[in-house]
Design brief:
The protein is of the alpha/beta class and 377 residues long. It has 13 helices and 16 strands.
Length: 377
Protein backbone atom coordinates (compact mmCIF):
# COMPACT_ATOMS: atom_id res chain seq x y z
CA UNK A 1 0.00 0.00 0.00
CA UNK A 2 1.27 3.44 -0.93
CA UNK A 3 2.35 5.67 1.95
CA UNK A 4 1.45 9.31 1.42
CA UNK A 5 2.92 12.22 3.37
CA UNK A 6 0.73 15.33 3.51
CA UNK A 7 2.05 18.79 4.41
CA UNK A 8 -0.11 21.91 4.24
CA UNK A 9 1.37 25.37 4.57
CA UNK A 10 -1.71 27.03 6.07
CA UNK A 11 -0.40 30.51 5.27
CA UNK A 12 0.29 29.81 1.58
CA UNK A 13 -1.36 32.37 -0.68
CA UNK A 14 -2.43 34.57 2.21
CA UNK A 15 -1.10 37.72 0.55
CA UNK A 16 -2.52 37.12 -2.91
CA UNK A 17 -6.10 38.38 -2.75
CA UNK A 18 -5.08 41.45 -0.75
CA UNK A 19 -2.45 42.47 -3.30
CA UNK A 20 0.71 41.82 -1.31
CA UNK A 21 2.33 39.80 -4.13
CA UNK A 22 3.51 37.07 -1.80
CA UNK A 23 3.25 35.59 1.67
CA UNK A 24 6.84 35.39 2.84
CA UNK A 25 7.71 36.81 6.24
CA UNK A 26 5.85 37.45 9.49
CA UNK A 27 5.17 41.09 8.68
CA UNK A 28 3.59 40.20 5.33
CA UNK A 29 1.36 37.60 6.95
CA UNK A 30 0.31 39.98 9.72
CA UNK A 31 -0.46 42.71 7.17
CA UNK A 32 -2.50 40.27 5.09
CA UNK A 33 -4.71 39.43 8.06
CA UNK A 34 -5.10 43.13 8.82
CA UNK A 35 -6.41 43.57 5.27
CA UNK A 36 -8.95 40.79 5.76
CA UNK A 37 -7.15 37.94 4.01
CA UNK A 38 -8.57 34.43 4.31
CA UNK A 39 -6.59 31.19 4.51
CA UNK A 40 -7.36 29.01 1.51
CA UNK A 41 -4.59 26.40 1.48
CA UNK A 42 -6.70 23.83 3.33
CA UNK A 43 -9.59 24.36 0.94
CA UNK A 44 -7.33 23.85 -2.07
CA UNK A 45 -5.81 20.74 -0.50
CA UNK A 46 -9.30 19.39 0.06
CA UNK A 47 -10.03 19.80 -3.66
CA UNK A 48 -7.03 17.62 -4.44
CA UNK A 49 -7.72 14.93 -1.82
CA UNK A 50 -11.38 14.57 -2.72
CA UNK A 51 -10.32 13.27 -6.13
CA UNK A 52 -8.71 10.14 -4.67
CA UNK A 53 -9.24 9.79 -0.91
CA UNK A 54 -12.42 7.69 -0.90
CA UNK A 55 -12.02 4.77 -0.69
CA UNK A 56 -8.76 5.23 1.25
CA UNK A 57 -6.19 3.03 -0.48
CA UNK A 58 -3.13 4.54 1.12
CA UNK A 59 -1.44 5.05 4.46
CA UNK A 60 -1.38 8.71 5.48
CA UNK A 61 1.28 10.53 7.48
CA UNK A 62 0.50 14.15 8.21
CA UNK A 63 1.23 17.07 10.53
CA UNK A 64 -0.67 18.55 13.47
CA UNK A 65 -3.60 20.92 13.26
CA UNK A 66 -3.83 23.12 10.15
CA UNK A 67 -0.80 21.47 8.57
CA UNK A 68 -2.89 18.38 7.72
CA UNK A 69 -4.57 16.84 10.75
CA UNK A 70 -7.68 19.01 10.62
CA UNK A 71 -8.37 18.18 6.98
CA UNK A 72 -7.76 14.45 7.54
CA UNK A 73 -10.34 14.53 10.33
CA UNK A 74 -12.82 16.44 8.19
CA UNK A 75 -12.47 13.85 5.42
CA UNK A 76 -12.67 11.00 7.98
CA UNK A 77 -9.30 9.60 6.93
CA UNK A 78 -7.16 7.32 9.02
CA UNK A 79 -3.80 8.94 9.61
CA UNK A 80 -0.60 8.81 11.61
CA UNK A 81 0.59 12.06 13.10
CA UNK A 82 4.19 13.23 13.01
CA UNK A 83 5.52 16.10 15.10
CA UNK A 84 7.62 18.63 13.15
CA UNK A 85 10.44 18.71 15.68
CA UNK A 86 11.09 21.54 18.07
CA UNK A 87 10.28 24.47 15.81
CA UNK A 88 8.37 27.13 17.69
CA UNK A 89 5.47 29.14 16.40
CA UNK A 90 6.17 32.70 15.30
CA UNK A 91 5.36 35.48 17.78
CA UNK A 92 2.00 35.90 16.07
CA UNK A 93 1.22 32.21 16.55
CA UNK A 94 1.77 31.13 12.94
CA UNK A 95 3.58 28.10 11.61
CA UNK A 96 6.93 28.84 9.99
CA UNK A 97 9.18 27.37 7.28
CA UNK A 98 11.03 25.32 9.90
CA UNK A 99 7.85 23.29 10.50
CA UNK A 100 7.64 22.42 6.80
CA UNK A 101 11.32 21.51 6.61
CA UNK A 102 11.23 19.32 9.70
CA UNK A 103 8.04 17.59 8.55
CA UNK A 104 9.59 16.86 5.16
CA UNK A 105 12.75 15.48 6.77
CA UNK A 106 10.75 13.13 9.00
CA UNK A 107 8.59 11.92 6.14
CA UNK A 108 11.60 11.20 3.97
CA UNK A 109 13.23 9.32 6.86
CA UNK A 110 10.04 7.28 7.25
CA UNK A 111 10.29 6.31 3.57
CA UNK A 112 6.99 7.71 2.32
CA UNK A 113 6.30 6.98 -1.33
CA UNK A 114 5.11 10.51 -2.08
CA UNK A 115 5.11 13.83 -0.25
CA UNK A 116 2.04 15.82 -1.28
CA UNK A 117 2.30 19.42 -0.15
CA UNK A 118 0.14 22.52 -0.47
CA UNK A 119 1.92 25.84 -0.82
CA UNK A 120 3.82 28.02 -3.22
CA UNK A 121 7.39 28.43 -4.38
CA UNK A 122 8.62 29.20 -0.88
CA UNK A 123 7.17 25.94 0.43
CA UNK A 124 8.70 24.07 -2.51
CA UNK A 125 12.08 25.60 -1.63
CA UNK A 126 11.77 24.44 1.98
CA UNK A 127 10.99 20.88 0.92
CA UNK A 128 13.70 20.85 -1.75
CA UNK A 129 16.25 21.84 0.88
CA UNK A 130 15.10 19.07 3.24
CA UNK A 131 14.65 15.83 1.33
CA UNK A 132 17.03 13.50 -0.55
CA UNK A 133 17.14 13.68 -4.34
CA UNK A 134 15.29 10.37 -4.61
CA UNK A 135 12.17 11.60 -2.75
CA UNK A 136 9.04 11.83 -4.87
CA UNK A 137 7.16 15.10 -4.33
CA UNK A 138 4.07 16.77 -5.79
CA UNK A 139 2.75 20.26 -5.05
CA UNK A 140 -0.84 21.44 -4.75
CA UNK A 141 -0.80 25.05 -5.98
CA UNK A 142 -1.88 27.24 -3.07
CA UNK A 143 0.65 30.07 -3.03
CA UNK A 144 0.85 33.49 -4.63
CA UNK A 145 3.98 32.60 -6.60
CA UNK A 146 3.86 29.38 -8.64
CA UNK A 147 6.94 29.48 -10.87
CA UNK A 148 8.31 26.05 -9.98
CA UNK A 149 7.60 23.02 -12.11
CA UNK A 150 6.68 20.78 -9.17
CA UNK A 151 2.98 21.67 -8.95
CA UNK A 152 -0.14 20.31 -10.54
CA UNK A 153 -1.73 22.87 -12.84
CA UNK A 154 -4.71 22.95 -10.44
CA UNK A 155 -5.46 21.25 -7.11
CA UNK A 156 -7.76 18.84 -8.92
CA UNK A 157 -5.04 18.04 -11.46
CA UNK A 158 -2.63 17.19 -8.62
CA UNK A 159 -5.30 14.89 -7.18
CA UNK A 160 -5.74 13.20 -10.55
CA UNK A 161 -2.03 12.36 -10.69
CA UNK A 162 -2.22 10.70 -7.26
CA UNK A 163 -5.40 8.87 -8.29
CA UNK A 164 -3.67 7.44 -11.37
CA UNK A 165 -0.81 6.29 -9.17
CA UNK A 166 -3.18 4.54 -6.75
CA UNK A 167 -5.00 2.86 -9.63
CA UNK A 168 -1.79 1.41 -11.04
CA UNK A 169 -1.83 3.50 -14.20
CA UNK A 170 1.42 4.58 -15.80
CA UNK A 171 2.67 7.76 -14.18
CA UNK A 172 5.84 9.37 -15.51
CA UNK A 173 8.48 10.69 -13.14
CA UNK A 174 10.87 13.49 -13.97
CA UNK A 175 13.01 16.18 -12.40
CA UNK A 176 11.37 19.58 -12.15
CA UNK A 177 12.91 22.93 -11.26
CA UNK A 178 12.23 24.66 -7.96
CA UNK A 179 12.22 28.41 -8.65
CA UNK A 180 11.28 31.43 -6.58
CA UNK A 181 10.91 35.16 -7.03
CA UNK A 182 12.43 37.87 -4.90
CA UNK A 183 9.18 39.16 -3.37
CA UNK A 184 10.56 42.56 -2.38
CA UNK A 185 11.88 43.18 -5.89
CA UNK A 186 8.58 41.95 -7.33
CA UNK A 187 6.67 44.50 -5.23
CA UNK A 188 8.76 47.17 -6.94
CA UNK A 189 8.02 45.86 -10.41
CA UNK A 190 11.18 43.80 -10.87
CA UNK A 191 10.94 40.12 -11.76
CA UNK A 192 13.98 38.36 -10.30
CA UNK A 193 13.59 34.58 -10.29
CA UNK A 194 16.29 32.02 -9.67
CA UNK A 195 16.53 28.27 -9.50
CA UNK A 196 17.05 26.73 -6.08
CA UNK A 197 17.23 23.06 -7.04
CA UNK A 198 15.10 20.28 -8.45
CA UNK A 199 12.66 17.69 -7.16
CA UNK A 200 11.46 14.36 -8.55
CA UNK A 201 7.84 14.78 -9.54
CA UNK A 202 5.17 12.37 -10.84
CA UNK A 203 3.17 13.61 -13.78
CA UNK A 204 0.46 12.35 -16.07
CA UNK A 205 1.67 9.22 -17.84
CA UNK A 206 2.50 9.17 -21.55
CA UNK A 207 1.67 5.83 -23.05
CA UNK A 208 3.43 6.17 -26.41
CA UNK A 209 7.17 6.18 -27.02
CA UNK A 210 9.46 5.01 -29.83
CA UNK A 211 6.43 4.85 -32.12
CA UNK A 212 5.88 3.55 -35.61
CA UNK A 213 3.22 4.97 -37.87
CA UNK A 214 -0.13 4.62 -36.15
CA UNK A 215 1.18 5.49 -32.69
CA UNK A 216 1.70 1.95 -31.38
CA UNK A 217 4.70 1.22 -29.21
CA UNK A 218 7.41 -0.73 -31.01
CA UNK A 219 8.59 -3.27 -28.45
CA UNK A 220 12.04 -3.78 -29.97
CA UNK A 221 12.72 -0.04 -30.22
CA UNK A 222 11.54 0.50 -26.64
CA UNK A 223 13.77 -2.28 -25.31
CA UNK A 224 16.75 -0.85 -27.17
CA UNK A 225 16.04 2.60 -25.74
CA UNK A 226 15.81 1.17 -22.22
CA UNK A 227 19.10 -0.68 -22.58
CA UNK A 228 20.87 2.38 -23.99
CA UNK A 229 19.92 4.54 -21.01
CA UNK A 230 20.64 1.87 -18.39
CA UNK A 231 24.15 1.36 -19.80
CA UNK A 232 24.73 5.11 -20.09
CA UNK A 233 23.85 5.50 -16.39
CA UNK A 234 26.13 2.71 -15.15
CA UNK A 235 28.79 3.81 -12.67
CA UNK A 236 32.42 2.73 -12.76
CA UNK A 237 33.24 0.42 -9.89
CA UNK A 238 29.63 -0.59 -9.28
CA UNK A 239 28.77 -4.29 -9.56
CA UNK A 240 25.63 -5.00 -11.59
CA UNK A 241 23.58 -8.18 -11.38
CA UNK A 242 21.56 -8.52 -14.58
CA UNK A 243 18.48 -10.66 -14.07
CA UNK A 244 16.72 -13.05 -16.41
CA UNK A 245 14.50 -12.15 -19.35
CA UNK A 246 14.57 -10.66 -22.81
CA UNK A 247 14.38 -7.06 -21.65
CA UNK A 248 17.37 -7.40 -19.35
CA UNK A 249 19.20 -9.35 -22.04
CA UNK A 250 19.13 -6.19 -24.15
CA UNK A 251 21.28 -4.50 -21.49
CA UNK A 252 23.93 -7.19 -21.89
CA UNK A 253 23.76 -6.83 -25.66
CA UNK A 254 24.22 -3.06 -25.34
CA UNK A 255 27.30 -3.74 -23.21
CA UNK A 256 28.56 -6.30 -25.75
CA UNK A 257 28.77 -9.16 -23.24
CA UNK A 258 27.33 -12.67 -23.25
CA UNK A 259 24.11 -13.14 -21.31
CA UNK A 260 22.18 -15.96 -19.66
CA UNK A 261 18.55 -15.65 -20.75
CA UNK A 262 17.14 -17.52 -17.74
CA UNK A 263 19.85 -16.73 -15.20
CA UNK A 264 21.73 -13.97 -13.43
CA UNK A 265 24.99 -12.49 -14.72
CA UNK A 266 27.41 -10.17 -12.94
CA UNK A 267 28.98 -7.22 -14.78
CA UNK A 268 31.68 -4.85 -13.57
CA UNK A 269 33.03 -1.88 -15.54
CA UNK A 270 31.37 -3.10 -18.71
CA UNK A 271 32.91 -6.59 -18.49
CA UNK A 272 31.28 -9.92 -17.69
CA UNK A 273 32.51 -10.93 -14.24
CA UNK A 274 30.45 -14.11 -13.72
CA UNK A 275 27.75 -15.87 -15.73
CA UNK A 276 24.66 -17.75 -14.57
CA UNK A 277 25.53 -17.37 -10.89
CA UNK A 278 23.50 -18.81 -8.04
CA UNK A 279 22.47 -17.30 -4.71
CA UNK A 280 25.73 -18.23 -3.01
CA UNK A 281 27.74 -16.71 -5.86
CA UNK A 282 25.80 -13.43 -5.62
CA UNK A 283 26.34 -13.35 -1.86
CA UNK A 284 30.07 -13.92 -2.23
CA UNK A 285 30.41 -11.11 -4.75
CA UNK A 286 28.41 -8.75 -2.55
CA UNK A 287 30.97 -9.21 0.22
CA UNK A 288 33.72 -8.12 -2.15
CA UNK A 289 32.17 -4.91 -3.52
CA UNK A 290 30.91 -1.79 -1.79
CA UNK A 291 28.44 -0.84 -4.54
CA UNK A 292 25.99 -3.21 -6.21
CA UNK A 293 22.71 -2.97 -8.09
CA UNK A 294 20.28 -5.49 -9.54
CA UNK A 295 18.68 -4.86 -12.93
CA UNK A 296 15.39 -6.74 -13.13
CA UNK A 297 12.49 -6.78 -15.54
CA UNK A 298 8.74 -7.12 -15.03
CA UNK A 299 7.05 -10.41 -15.84
CA UNK A 300 4.44 -9.60 -18.46
CA UNK A 301 0.83 -10.36 -17.58
CA UNK A 302 1.64 -11.46 -14.01
CA UNK A 303 3.65 -8.44 -12.90
CA UNK A 304 6.14 -10.23 -10.64
CA UNK A 305 9.50 -8.55 -10.14
CA UNK A 306 10.88 -10.93 -7.49
CA UNK A 307 10.15 -14.58 -6.78
CA UNK A 308 9.46 -15.80 -10.32
CA UNK A 309 12.51 -16.98 -12.26
CA UNK A 310 14.96 -14.98 -10.14
CA UNK A 311 14.94 -16.74 -6.78
CA UNK A 312 18.72 -16.26 -6.76
CA UNK A 313 17.85 -12.90 -5.21
CA UNK A 314 17.10 -14.33 -1.78
CA UNK A 315 15.93 -12.27 1.22
CA UNK A 316 19.49 -11.97 2.57
CA UNK A 317 20.70 -10.77 -0.84
CA UNK A 318 17.92 -8.20 -1.06
CA UNK A 319 18.49 -6.92 2.47
CA UNK A 320 22.20 -6.58 1.79
CA UNK A 321 21.63 -4.64 -1.44
CA UNK A 322 18.74 -2.47 -0.27
CA UNK A 323 15.56 -1.47 -2.04
CA UNK A 324 17.19 1.65 -3.48
CA UNK A 325 19.59 -0.53 -5.50
CA UNK A 326 16.87 -2.44 -7.31
CA UNK A 327 16.48 -1.04 -10.83
CA UNK A 328 13.35 -2.12 -12.68
CA UNK A 329 13.03 -1.99 -16.46
CA UNK A 330 10.00 -2.67 -18.64
CA UNK A 331 8.28 -1.47 -21.77
CA UNK A 332 5.08 0.47 -21.20
CA UNK A 333 3.08 -2.11 -23.14
CA UNK A 334 4.27 -4.82 -20.75
CA UNK A 335 3.31 -2.68 -17.76
CA UNK A 336 -0.08 -2.06 -19.34
CA UNK A 337 -0.58 -5.83 -19.65
CA UNK A 338 -0.68 -5.99 -15.85
CA UNK A 339 -3.97 -4.06 -16.16
CA UNK A 340 -3.46 -1.75 -13.23
CA UNK A 341 -2.56 -4.42 -10.69
CA UNK A 342 0.48 -3.74 -8.48
CA UNK A 343 3.80 -5.32 -9.35
CA UNK A 344 4.41 -8.27 -7.05
CA UNK A 345 7.22 -9.14 -4.63
CA UNK A 346 7.37 -12.75 -3.42
CA UNK A 347 10.85 -13.04 -1.94
CA UNK A 348 9.99 -15.74 0.59
CA UNK A 349 10.23 -13.25 3.47
CA UNK A 350 6.76 -11.74 4.09
CA UNK A 351 8.15 -8.98 6.32
CA UNK A 352 10.61 -7.89 3.63
CA UNK A 353 7.87 -8.05 1.00
CA UNK A 354 5.66 -5.74 3.06
CA UNK A 355 8.54 -3.37 3.80
CA UNK A 356 9.37 -3.06 0.11
CA UNK A 357 5.77 -2.39 -0.94
CA UNK A 358 4.80 1.10 -2.08
CA UNK A 359 5.89 2.54 -5.41
CA UNK A 360 9.03 2.03 -7.45
CA UNK A 361 10.44 3.75 -10.49
CA UNK A 362 10.50 1.71 -13.69
CA UNK A 363 12.70 2.63 -16.64
CA UNK A 364 10.49 2.52 -19.74
CA UNK A 365 12.66 4.15 -22.40
CA UNK A 366 15.62 6.42 -22.99
CA UNK A 367 15.50 9.03 -20.21
CA UNK A 368 11.92 7.95 -19.65
CA UNK A 369 10.58 6.34 -16.51
CA UNK A 370 7.34 5.92 -14.60
CA UNK A 371 6.39 5.26 -11.00
CA UNK A 372 4.26 2.19 -10.39
CA UNK A 373 2.78 0.57 -7.24
CA UNK A 374 4.43 -2.53 -5.81
CA UNK A 375 2.77 -4.93 -3.35
CA UNK A 376 3.59 -8.00 -1.31
CA UNK A 377 2.48 -11.34 -2.75
Amino acid sequence: MLTLGLIINPLAGIGGAVGLKGSDGDSTVARAFELGAEQKAMQRTRQALEVFCHPQRFRLLTCPDEMGQQLAQQLELEYELIQPGSAEMTPAGFTCPAHTRQAAIQMAERGVDLILFAGGDGTARDICASVPDSTLVLGIPAGVKIHSGVFGVTPTAAGEVVKRLLEGQLVDVSEAEVRDLDEEAFRHGQVKARQFGALRVPSEGHFVQAVKQGGIEDESLSVADIAAWVVEEMDAGCLYFIGSGKTTRAVSEELGVESTLLGVDAVLNGQLLAADINEAGIWELLQQHDQAQAILSVMGGQGHILGRGNQQFSPRILKQMGRENLRLISTKSKLSSVEGRPLMIDSGDPALDRAWSGVMEVVTGYRDQVVYPVAAH
